[in-house]
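Hey, I'm writing a tutorial for new members on how sequence and structure tokens pair up, and I'd like a real worked example in the thread rather than a made-up one. If someone can provide the structure for the chain below, I'll link this post from the tutorial.
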Amino acid sequence: MFGLAKRLAAACGALFLLIAATGCMRMDLELEIRPDETVGGSFTAAWSQDFLDEVATGEDAVSRAELDAFLDALMDGVPGGQREAYREDGYVGRTATFTGRPLSEFAEFGDQDWGFMRLTYEDRRYVLQGRWDLRYDDAGLVFPERIEEAEILMRVNFPARVTDHNGELEGRTVTWRMSPGEDYRLHAEAREYDGWAFAGAGIAALAVVLALLWLWQWSRMRRYSR
């Protein structure tokens, strides 16, 4: 499984200590679970244009080359797929997309110390469990005041009805909005309809209706036969 989250945690500890600006970064991870038990998605990492303009003046402790190297490290954690430039809402960076990854690759990845995510499918039920600790870097240094307004999103689209979650639900997509300085627990469940069970229930209901109609007709026949 790709080490996107681990690369993120490791790189953040080294670089964020150099950044004095707030609201300077956007990270957006989107996953789509498909009925054929594969996963596609995209990962976007970008700096705000205002922050890049500040860096260009040479007055900041970090250079544009270091910022580009940081994005490259994050993109290297995404398996295969395409890389393309990203420019939207005043942010500039890169987006990596991937498709057709087996759901089994997402069964468990991460580390209990900094975070993990598990995606499983069993008995027609999809379960996501995760943790993302954004309070400390690998060295235990606190940095939330440096990037307290960074945009960090994770979105997961399920191929079935979502029955439980602790994020924001729209249709079959659960979104978690995260900020540095917090320890997040992620949870979502989705369940497929059992077509045979539904058909069986329908047949049983129809049988009951037919039985009642037959009894009603039989009672009428007995009444008028006297």
